[in-house]
Amino acid sequence: MAKVFIPTMLQKMTGGLKQVDFQAKNVRQVIEELDRLYPGMKDRLCEEGAIRSNLAVAVDGEIARMGLLEKVGENSEVHFVPAIGGGLS
């Protein structure tokens, strides 16, 4: 089962739970299952059918470049982290 780590800012929605484990084939399924378990979670993670611009998703330590379509393996670790911006324009 994939290990999904709940961001600190959303742990109030999970009753303080920091991690949940379940089956998912991609990031979209991860978010749908989180929303099923904790209604309203999807709205906090997604906006207009995509990951919110202030968040990034890491699967097995790599930023998910394919967004909601990023594959999640049976033993993957999924983290939602604040997106890092900056640099020169």
Which architecture name does CATH use?
Answer: Roll
Looking across the biggest beta sheet, what order are the strands in? 2-1-7-5-6
Q: Percentage of helical residues? A: 10-25%
- Determine Rg (CA atoms, Å): 13 Å
Q: What fraction strand?
A: 25-35%
Anisotropy-based shape = globular
* CATH first level: Alpha Beta
CATH T-level topology? Ubiquitin-like (UB roll)
The succession of helices and strands, N to C, reads EEHHEEEEE
Number of β-strand runs: 7
Number of helices: 2
Q: Helix- and strand-based class?
A: alpha+beta
The residue ranges in which pLDDT falls below 50 over 5 or more consecutive positions are none
How many domains would you count in the coordinates? 1
